[in-house]
User: Fold Phosphomannomutase from Streptomyces spectabilis.
Amino acid sequence: MAADLSQIVKAYDVRGVVPDQWDETLAEQFGAAFARVTGADAIVVGHDMRPSSPGLSGAFARGAAALGVDVTEIGLCSTDQLYYASGALDLPGAMFTASHNPAQYNGIKMCRAGAAPVGQDTGLADIRALVERWAEEGAPEPAPTPGTLTRRDTLKDYAAHLRSLVDLSVIRPLKVVVDAGNGMGGHTVPTVFEGLPLTLVPMYFELDGTFPNHEANPLDPANIVDLQQRVREEGADLGIAFDGDADRCFVVDENGDPVSPSAVTALVAARELAKHGGSGTVIHNLITSWTVPEVVRENGGTPVRTRVGHSFIKEEMAKSGAIFGGEHSAHYYFRDFWNADTGMLAALHVLAALGGQDGPLSALVEQYDRYVGSGEINSTVADQQDRLAAIKAAYEGQDGVTLDELDGLTITTADWWFNVRASNTEPLLRLNAEARDQQTMEKTRDAALAIIRA
Assistant:
């Protein structure tokens, strides 16, 4: 097919509608290009439960094998299970998933050996250039000896590795509702949780890439309504929701109230710091709560603030030797997991923390939820840069106000802060605000929105 790769090769991955924007023929070329760019003798490939995933994944594997690369196919897996395979086998990897996008979408998340990310500046642009060249000149010459295709099941090894990273030996019995959203959590949770003192109440564990119950995006409040209701009905200790490829997790307490990803980041950071001797660097993006750096310092750690996005987090993790990183989007990164993100490991930390004491989750997370946040508010604007400049002009030079432009524009005072970032793909500005109390947060939020939407 004559594909427009500018539409499907994004900053960190490949993603588009199948078969309108890309198909198995193109997937095969991506496999060959991935083999060429990584220079690997062997790679590992996995896929999620979308109807198009097995075919695309198989085509990618054939493309790599045609150039003499041995391919280990691990089949159905979560994205962090693919990262596990890349790390444990020390091989470059490719995961076929479109995460929480609608059913007609699919994509490829790629990494080098040891789960090191492949983005625009680390190989993805080179892969795109090769595929475009081959579209004009014809496919590359096959290797004299093609590579082998080998099947391997890594689920039990993945589960064992995760459980080796968290002490779950002394947790009390807990009742937990898990909403897999018909995504890969339905595949991984039963094995990871096996043998733990948990009463598991499964929701939507049937693997179904058409997402018949709700979108597999737990950050949208509409998609956790079923989980919240079920937790209350069951009298459960907590609820956990995973996104489509199960690399993100979202937590609700025993009352069905959402636990913010910032609170989870702070809780896990404290536990990881204790595990690593009470010191270490913890990464957080600039939209996480003030609570995160406070808790990190209180527990002997050094907080480092970064831009939003997994490539920035992983880059800073590698550079600083950080032990942990967290984002407002419920991505959690661990040095002990090749600096990759795994929602399942974060979930195990929450279970261990809750099960290691007698109180409810709501009481446990109070210490990690100290401020009032607005959540992310999107506004459609005609000119993103014009509105950012207007905000800067309104606040610049005021007493007690600091501005920085690490990622978008962040305005900070002693009592509140807000950040405004432009979307890369839509004519939107994204606002996040936080303050010491509800009234101040609302005043801060509304003042910023008045300028954004003027």
